[in-house]
């Protein structure tokens, strides 16, 4: 019914069913994972009026009770989602919605778990995922523009010389680096105040 994907690894479709409505994936070497994608395989839809709450659990080396963090949801209308797990913090979260069976399916202390709990859509709507799991929704063009401007400024700055080091060259026009820096800082300030200003 579900699949789990991590970049550079084979797709996992071998979720352990720990209850009639709960499924768990083991995630080895979770320290090397930045993002995880959870998706429906398309073979079995959710029952009408239900969806899947996606949770993440760090292994607990101290042997205490496990802490699960709600990442988000998948539904028949939104059958896949990507979550950022590299910013999650161990020990933060809520109770274990998967029971002791999930703990017994964990292979080793270096294995985290991703769980899908089938729940009513109205219950899912009332739950609040951890904010750090959300993948940035910054416009890809805006992100590219920021990176490009950083690169341009760093490249131009690498040619900086003081006035004493300058040699006269009538065919060359010089722009003070402070002028470029001032423009760049102004651009960043305007972007932080209104990320869509460049669309106007």
Quick summary:
This protein has about 200 residues and is α+β, with helices and mostly antiparallel strands. It has 4 helices and 8 strands, in the order E-E-E-E-E-E-E-H-E-H-H-H. It is found in: Cytoplasm; Cytoplasm, Cytosol; Nucleus.
Structural summary, described in words:
The relative contact order is 0.16. 24% of the residues lie in helices and 26% in strands. With 200 residues, it is an alpha+beta fold. It is elongated. Helix 3 runs antiparallel to helix 4. The chain has a five-stranded antiparallel β-sheet with strand order 2-3-8-5-6. The chain is built from four helices and eight strands. The longest helix has 18 residues, at 140-157. GO terms for molecular function: Hsp70 protein binding; nuclear import signal receptor activity.
Radius of gyration: 24 Å
C-alpha termini separation: 45 Å
How many strand units?
8
Spatial order of the strands in the main sheet? 2-3-8-5-6
Q: Which series of helices and strands comes N to C?
A: EEEEEEEHEHHH
Arithmetic mean pLDDT: 81
> What are the segments in which pLDDT stays under 50 over at least 5 consecutive residues?
none
Globular, elongated, flat, extended or rod-shaped: what is the shape?
elongated
Approximate strand percentage:
25-35%
Count of alpha and pi helical runs:
4
- Helix-residue proportion: 10-25%
Strand pairing plus helix content: what structural class?
Answer: alpha+beta
Largest sheet, in brief, is:
5 strands, antiparallel
Features:
Protein Hikeshi, nucleus, nuclear import signal receptor activity, single chain, 8 strands, alpha+beta, OPI10, 200 residues
